[in-house]
Amino acid sequence: xxxxxxxxxxxxxxxxxxxxxxxxxxxxxxxxxxxxxxxxxxxxxxxxxxxxxxxxxxxxxxxxxxxxxxxxxxxxxxxxxxxxxxxxxxxxxxxxxxxxxxxxxxxxxxxxxxxxxxxxxxxxxxxxxxxxxxxxxxxxxxxxxxxxxxxxxxxxxxxxxxxxxxxxxxxxxxxxxxxxxxxxxxxxxxxxxxxxxxxxxxxxxxxxxxxxxxxxxxxxxxxxxxxxxxxxxxxxxxxxxxxxxxxxxxxxxxxxxxxxxxxxxxxxxxxxxxxxxxxxxxxxxxxxxxxxxxxxxxxxxxxxxxxxxxxxxxxxxxxxxxxxxxxxxxxxxxxxxxxxxxxxxxxxxxxxxxxxxxxxxxxxxxxxxxxxxxxxxxxxxxxxxxxxxxxxxxxxxxx
Length: 399
What we know:
Blueprint: H1 19-24, E1 30-36, H2 53-56, H3 65-77, E2 84-91, H4 99-112, E3 115-125, H5 132-141, E4 145-151, H6 155-160, H7 169-180, E5 184-191, H8 198-210, E6 215-220, H9 228-234, H10 243-259, E7 263-266, E8 269-271, H11 279-285, E9 289-293, E10 298-301, E11 304-308, H12 312-320, E12 326-331, H13 334-345, E13 352-353, H14 359-367, E14 371-373, E15 380-383, H15 385-389, H16 391-398
Parallel strand pairs: 1-2, 1-9, 2-3, 3-4, 4-5, 5-6
Antiparallel strand pairs: 6-8, 7-8, 10-11, 11-12, 13-15, 14-15
Helix pairs in contact: 3-4, 3-12, 4-5, 5-7, 8-10
């Protein structure tokens, strides 16, 4: 057996987990994440584990991908048993697979572990990758929630981001999803793109609200090393994002969405009701368990975290050989888990128990107006609006 990897220990060939981890599974919920690593084109800001046709190389096929995922699922089913509360299919662009293939994966999850009666089942989609007919087929296959990557209503901003859909396509796709019978529809926005004006972002917010969705995610643009956008900034072709502009955009989002009947429940997420909140993401934020299927997918079960090999061809090869596609894993210590709980739970409107925080850091954050006691829960604190703007700094102080 090879020695420990720099960022973790080897995963057993059969993918087995420590008995304590298996016994603990599902105590805070159990979900399944399915990674679909295909994109029609690469956006300039994206550094996700995704591949266009020209980047994919040999040994991996979109047409065979569902069967490959089902092979991993068969392996996983022999390791643990737990009813599935949530499924989230992300990417990449999951809807580059046919509704039939996505439905087969969902059926495989149900046959392996069993979906609970009220399971939340989400797929991400790019607006140009769905049609009324495909949305109806996805709904028929069992998907209850869809998250559409809108990013902006400004043609100029979409061009800078290298998005391929037109400005009006995302709201239309959201309407088509509602007409197809999806219980919940989300639109994603990105703010702080170079060249975006306050009016551009106001128009994006107005378009999202007018689309009638019940969930909105809004994220500040992050420029990742190695992306095309980062290269353009290094060459001086685009200015770097400004923190003050990002803060102004966030405040604009909070004001517009609150006025329209949305409430924040996580720093970057707003919903019109508790039922509209993304239960799968909440499972991540509250320390639940999930199995990640697909190349590069991460999993967490009972304090054990592992991740799969990244390239689709390497992933398919391992499964064809009958071995786990896991690249490495780590066993989280009690202190690791406390730190992660602070990092994730503090971002929630439900707040965080003071007992998990550094007392001096929490006291200073309260004094600075970045935290406030939760009115309905003794011994808990929640970020103020100003605290949300400085969430990363507050988290560093609290751990």
